[in-house]
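tool=predict chain=A
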Amino acid sequence: MKFYLISTPIGNIEDISLRALKTLENLDILLCEDTRQTKKLLTLLNIENVPKLLRCDEYTEEKLKEKVLNWIKEGKKVGLVSDAGTPLISDPGYRLVSFLKENKVEIIPVPGPSAFLVALLKSAYPCDKFAFLGFFPRKSGKLRSLLEKYLPLNITLIFYESPYRIEKTLKLLSEILKDRKIGIARELTKLHEEFIEGSPLELLDYLKKENKLKGEFVILIPKEKEK
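tool=predict ok
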């Protein structure tokens, strides 16, 4: 019994792997965050044998667990994709996958793009040791506590942030980090991909002036240079 976790492009459609294409072609059922988004992707990829698409998000994955297990026991090939990138990385699916593993289902990752790794490579920041910490906590107190815990490690820290919270987060980072240089990656693998550096307030000023407070952001805090 197997369950497939399939990575998909985060922007550039050419980043799809041959293995991912083959896996998608052979599935009976494909779980996805947004069936409309995944249907568009499958059309762009010219998938001829389109599997049955079912929504699987934070609200539905708990209800799907038993059904998915039964489908797999019946011999159906079932997989999971996120809207973009590698499933489970700051996306739904962990509870489902954990349940399937407990029930002797083999988890088969089909590797591919992940926004935080692309951002790390583009930054040219030290990547021998780093911590990916997902989305910033919503509450300022928890964000401060998180940074107090990880900044002393002096490794590259990587976060995701949404367009709805990026302004608030950068203002808070300016209080904590002062003028320390950080990096922001946006539009990764797309035509207008960019990586910008500066203090949190400098970056916020740039994003507002250029009307670029859109899309998801990857924020990187490099380790401080040894004195």
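Residues 61-73 form the longest helix (13 residues). The mean pLDDT is 95.
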